[in-house]
Amino acid sequence: MDAVTLSASLAMLGSAAAHSGMTLLTKQAADKLVFRGLTLAFVGLAFLPWLLTQPLPPWEVWRFLLAGSAVIWAYNMLMIAAFQDGDMNLAYPVMRGSAPALAAVAAFIFLRETVSIGQLAGLAVACAALIGFAWPERNGKPKLRILLLALAAASMTAAYTVIDASGVRESGRVLVYLGWFFALSIVTILPTAVLRRGRAFWPAARREARPALISTLFNTSTYGLALYAYANAPVAPMAALRELSIVFGAILAALVLKEPFGSRRTMLAICLAGGLVLLQVM
């Protein structure tokens, strides 16, 4: 593994850790829609003064930004719906675990990236382990609606993975692309929260403002580090490496939300790590 690929891999591990922290805060929020709207708006507003001093991206970049903003809106709506009734350790593994396979297929079709037999094997093992995290316990009952929402969210993750990877490569300026990515959230997710909540928006906003400010650090880190990785390494292995967020998320769910981890999930985590190592070295 050369130095550039190593740095991209480390960046993606950081992105995975930040994503799990962001997800934990979302799960804990009393009003998840208002929380996400505020979080992304805070990040966009933080970037906006600097962005106005920079040259505007060309249309070749804007087409990816606009497509990505629509997809990330859909992802957030699906994630919020899945988290309303489902445990984090049920919805999150499916949400993240099925995305790498979808991203790899999309990268193969649209970005013309090649995937070796060894990488396919590693990707299959990793995805199987991640989906295994969401499999019901012996006495548990499957929750079809939650799983379908999580799968739909995973398809949005795969879509914006390919869109953003293409967009940041076209742009050549990671921070500018990232800034406009968040700035567009001001006119998508936040207005959705305002319209849906009506008069209840402002009381909810006051309640969610502080944790949303904290979450801005996680949001900026997870997307910024991911974009850096996508700009410097193939999409499929980087997307799979980012899915280690589910291991971090399972640990956080056990420690903070008191959701069970157990020996079965420990073994799944080992299988996941093995699959990702195979994907990286083959």
Summarize the structure.
By secondary structure, the protein is an all-alpha fold. The protein has helices at 3-28, 32-51, 59-85, 88-97, 99-111, 117-133, 144-171, 174-183, 189-197, 201-232, 235-242, 245-255, 262-281.
> Low-confidence parts, pLDDT < 50 over ≥5 residues?
none
Can you count the beta strands? 0
Alpha-carbon Rg, integer: 18 Å
The first-to-last residue Cα distance is 10 Å
Tell me the number of helical segments per DSSP (H or I, 4 or more residues long).
Answer: 13
Count of the domains: 1
What structural class do the secondary elements suggest?
Answer: mainly alpha
Please estimate the helix content: over 70%
Beta-strand residue percentage? under 5%
Output the helix-strand order.
HHHHHHHHHHHHH
The outline comes out as globular
> Mean of residue pLDDT?
83
Largest sheet: none
Give a written overview of the molecule.
- The protein has 282 residues and is mainly α.
- The chain has one domain (3-281).
- It contains 13 helices and no strands.
- The N and C termini lie close together (10 Å).
- 54% of the residues are buried.
- The mean pLDDT is 83.
List keywords for this structure.
about 280 residues, mainly alpha, 13 helices, globular
SSE topology:
Layout: H1 3-28, H2 32-51, H3 59-85, H4 88-97, H5 99-111, H6 117-133, H7 144-171, H8 174-183, H9 189-197, H10 201-232, H11 235-242, H12 245-255, H13 262-281
